[in-house]
Amino acid sequence: MDLLKSGYLTFSSVLVDSASVALSLATANTRTTMMSPTLPTPLADYFAAANRHDIAAMLAPFAPEARVKDEGQTHIGTAAIRVWLEHTTAKYAVTVEIVDMTADAETTVVVGRVSGNFPGSPANLTYRFTLDGDRIASLAIG
Fold first, then answer.
1. Of the N and C termini of the chain, which has fewer Cβ atoms inside 10 Å?
2. Mind listing the domains of the chain with CATH numbers?
3. What's the DSSP call for residue 38?
4. What is the dihedral sign for C-alpha 7, 29, 32, 100?
């Protein structure tokens, strides 16, 4: 019997892969189901790469003139974003578990449970993305 099709599953955590958001199964036979957030491909690619600490793959979804705002600083363009990615990845070594996602016509907001080398880990952080087609035009983390 396929438990997923029968609706006898609940889910505990969301793991991001490069194509979609996949769910890890927690409990069977409860008749409770949960819809997973479906991230746009550039965001799924970004979070999957972030969890692998793969700088080149994290950078790939960004538009050439993208902007990233994090820790009170703004990084403009892929060269500056690469430096930011290298610094923050080496310093914090974070992984992100997607908790929630909402989107409107202009912005996709992702809440992630972030674990890493920082005080208060793990903590929920909000990632606000704007897209330009299939590229990340801006990201604000807070």
1. N
2. 57-141 (3.10.450.50)
3. -
4. negative
pLDDT of residue 36: 57
Which residues does residue 69 pair with via DSSP β-bridges, in sequence order? 74, 140
pTM: 0.75
Alpha helices in 60-140 (DSSP H): 78-92
The set of residues, in sequence order, having a beta carbon less than 8 Å from that of 61 and lying 6+ positions away, is: 41, 42, 43, 45, 46, 134, 135, 136
* CA nearest to 74, candidates 123, 59, 66, 130: 66
Pair type for strands 9-16 and 108-115: unpaired
Please report which confidence band the pLDDT of residue 66 belongs to, taking 50, 70 and 90 as the band edges: very high
Strand partners, 25: 11
Q: Are 126 and 109 in contact (CB under 8 A)?
A: yes
Rounded Cα distance between 92 and 94, Å, is 5
